[in-house]
Amino acid sequence: MDGEAIEQLGAQQDDFTSVLGLAETLALSRDPRVKGFVKILYTTLFKWYADESHRLRMLKRLVDRATTTVDASREIDSDLEILAILVCEDQEIVRPVLSMMREVAELANVDRAALWHQLCASEDEILRIREERKAEIASTSKEKAVLSQKLSEYEATNSRLKSEMRAEMDRFARDRKELMEQMQEVENQLEWVRSERDDEITKLKAEKKILQDRLHEAETQLSQLKSRKRDELKRVMKEKNALAERLKSAEAARRRFDEELKRFATENVTREEIRQSLEDEVRRLTQTVGQTEGEKREKEEQVARCEAYIDGMESKLQACEQYIHHLEAQFQEEMARHAPLYGVGLDALSMKELETLSRIHEEGLRQIRAIQQRKGSPAGSPLVSPHTLSHTHGLYPPTPPPMPVGLPPSLIPNGVGIHSNGHVNGGIGPWFNH
Fold it and tell me: What are phi and psi of 267, to 5 degrees?
């Protein structure tokens, strides 16, 4: 029995929930007939489910809907009408309904107080934000004024800097123009120096070619003299051998004659004539031998003269070679000494040498301008007298006189001689020593 009662109670509970849900769903309709049906349905449910739990549940749902519905006042009136109908059906439910309404009102008051506090806090926050906004606006205005003042100052400074920059640009343009003019003058001077150097090189090459030709002629003459000497020596040796043979034959004849004299010593006077003739022959042969010895001495003297001449030619050849080596060394020295004037090898120079080179160029430019002013030529004319720099700085020393081929180094004219260190007497040192 208890189990069946529980099952019936559960089924009844499920039916009540379904029917109550249907009533709540129909209550949402705006049709008056549906609303009338809903009122009848609630009254019927209130009568069918007379137990307190179902009624409290139904009333609680109606009170909640009546107090929380905010869609339209008509829906609230509909829920309130249903509550009024139910109260009329059973007045004992007035107290629970009022208690429910009071609870809802208390909750609403609590929510209202919370909302009021939130509203007050929001208003305070808004006021604080407004004050902060005003302070920020005031500070922003001050900063704007300061920035405006700084901007005006910056604009004034910028205009002043622009004017100074324009003046600086003008000055820079003038300086650049002057530097370009000076650069042009220096380039013209370097071009003249290069032309002078080319002329000097051409002259040295011509002298070298002449010396080489003379050396070739001397070598040719020396070879001819050597060949003549060899031929003469061969001929003298042949004559010497022939004279030696003749001397041997004469000595053999003399020995034979002595033997004949010994053999014919005892002969008669008739043989005296033969002896006399033989003595004459001996004297003649002796005279011939003396002449042969004189010719031999003359040939030996001639050979000695040839050897002395050959030695002299060899010494001349050595002198020519030394002079050629000296000219080549002097040419290389001149090229190495003048290379910095052409802008070559400046990295290898010391600061003192660079200052000397700069001073030489500046002094040369001053002299060029002075000469141009004295002659009345334009200031930018690149023409320079070739004697100006050579007599002033010693950049181009005078070419030493040609060395005579037949003289040793100690007899070179003008006191120009070659030392053991390869320099020439009277030569000029490096340009940076001036």
Answer: -80, 175
pLDDT of residue 69: 52
Residue pair 389/364 in contact by the 8 Å Cβ criterion: yes
197-222: string of b/e by CB count within 10 Å (b at 16+)? beebeeebeebeeebeeebeebeeeb
Q: What digits encode the pLDDT tens for the residues 214-237?
A: 888 888 988 898 888 888 888 878
Q: Please tell me the pTM assigned to this model.
A: 0.24
Asked which of 89, 124, 148 is the last residue of a domain, the reply is 89
Report the alpha-carbon distance of residue 315 to residue 408 in Å, rounded: 8
SS3 418: strand
Rounded distance, CA 369 to CA 186, Å? 12
**Residue 145 included in any domain:** no
First-residue to last-residue Cα distance in the chain: 145
Are both 71 and 195 inside the same structural domain? no
CA–CA distance from 148 to each of 134, 151, 159, 189 (Å)? 20, 5, 16, 60
Distance CA(210)–CA(206), nearest Å, equals 6
